Amino acid sequence: QVQLVESGGGLVQPGGSLRLSCAASGTIFSLGVMGWYRQAPGKERELVATVGDGEPINYADSVKGRFTISRDNAKNTVTLRMNDLRPEDTAVYYCNVDKYCSTSGCYNRPLYFWGQGTQVTVSA
User: Using one digit for the tens of pLDDT, what is the confidence trace for 41-56?
Assistant: First the structure.
């Protein structure tokens, strides 16, 4: 099974910036739509942004104009640049991929493959 490893979370003041990265490990031939989701305490996990391979990028309305998602297919990574962070952005951020192909086969399971999460805290 593909392993997704996130990095880059931390504590930042309102208005600050952070950069999250997620790397997919394993003998991966291709990755489907990659995305970032977040879950705040007491709330459901929600979509932040997704990026496909040649497909339109999708952002949650709450982050449009502040966050930028990108992917590097050669490195099997997805990055989320977050600017103008607000206290309401505080959450655990999770990386996701909906499908992938590796030496063991191809697997299509949306919202199934997750990283361990990285904490983002926006506070003065």
Answer: 999 999 999 999 888 8
